[in-house]
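Bit of a strange request maybe. I'm writing a small parser for structure token strings and I need a real example to test against, not something I typed by hand. Could someone generate the tokens for this chain?
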Amino acid sequence: MNLELRHLRALVAVAEAQTFTDAAIALGTSQASVSRSVAALERALGVRVFQRTTRSVTPTATGKRIIEHARRVLDEARLLRPGGELVFLVDSVLVMLCSGDVGVAGERLLRPQFGMHRFEWPDDDSVEFHLPHGEMIALLRRSGFDVEELIEVRPPQDAVTRYDLVSLEWSRKWPCEEIWRARKRPASEP
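Reply from user aminoacidic:
Good idea to test on real output. This should exercise your parser:
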């Protein structure tokens, strides 16, 4: 059996609604159709995704992992179709340019903007990737997206909280994070 997006949609709808009937209503289809889709998916995977009672369904431990994966696949499918919207949050270019390997961002540039890509921190085993705006826009365009909006985040006037990478005073002068919104172009557009 070939798994299709409809199987994953049914699976996620059942997980969210916790009943096949409510999942069917949310999907605008019959309860029998949802049941068949979930049963086919379970047969194809060879595992039971839900524990069923007469009143509700609960994901099994394996089912929880499968459902999370199904959500990611559905998000990626939505994103990759023409008109799909990509929204992501990153540290601002200025934060990256004004941050050393440890401590908070200062008021001086500590790194070159050009060639900025991979960042590894001495107190963390994670790796981050950052691009200057021009390179980010070019990457998104090459990937078939048009940038619709770039929001440079700043704290409200009454803010009192802290951000690990910058002081509140710093973030009142310069953007500490950026929210990018891009949309997938139709395949026929260059």
